[in-house]
């Protein structure tokens, strides 16, 4: 893992010295060691009790090139463990352009994006891989895993305008998605025919966002064996249109910090929604220290084969070493009330993690 970090870092600094003046590059990295007290199903390659640095560590680079008349190219290269499903040898480090698109911005407030871009399923979506920009080690998994894909390839149209002294943004988007989770060889996850809209009000200290998305999802997984075993044939786990609503808010001013997000997704024609998930975070600044607590909840009913009721409690403590470096430590406790299909073989899990988030 550290060899990948070193090679990527050398490439970054060598390339930075020869790039043209109109290209902006900013790097970021997260290095975390995590130890779990229970054997995990999500990643059985890390079921020992020692510190594991692979799954939660990553390094990346944001790139922007400005052209004439409002046009620019924006992208992010990310190298990380392709979590949570490893290859036969456990580790499966790789890198790719996580997103890359052309953007046009008009002085009137209109903007256009064409290409691979991030799905706006969270208020942190635009910087979800840059750990320095939010309080947690990572976005709570009960919420993040409920978003079935991370990015999509398509078109987004937006308009930004002043509103009561703040900034109001409206965006519509459409395209075909890319999976959030890395599937194994027998698994197919397709997300197509995406249509959605975003309304975002940014007031600096606080922010509110509402998102609607409609997407056709096909999941085929003939080899998956849930724990406990399910009598339902799950070769075709899901094939249908899903409608999702995301609501989120953030407040960070003075000493207090609050994050709250909620999502609900329902399949067309079904009497009950498949997923309901939310989390809430509260933290308080004490100089360079930021202690914080997060409660997260997810209720999953996926195609009749997985019924989960998962909760988690996270206690964290951050220390601002420099403006560009934050030291984070956290204790995470999770429990699945309905049989622990995606969590652990015991239905609960505890872990401790410590590490650094850096931008450069």
Main sheet, how many strands, which sense, barrel?
16 strands, antiparallel, barrel
The low-pLDDT segments are 1-8, 10-21, 40-48, 83-90, 227-236
DSSP strand count: 16
Strand content: over 45%
H/E element order: HEEEEEHEEEEEEEEEEE
**Gross geometry:** globular
Helical content, roughly?
Answer: under 10%
Radius of gyration: 20 Å
What structural category characterises the helix and strand content? mainly beta
Widest sheet, order of strands: 1-2-3-4-5-6-7-8-9-10-11-12-13-14-15-16
Description:
This protein is mostly beta strands and 360 residues long. The protein has two helices and 16 strands. The model is unreliable at 1-8, 10-21, 40-48, 83-90 and 227-236 (pLDDT under 50).
Q: What descriptors fit this protein?
A:
360 residues, mainly beta, 16 strands
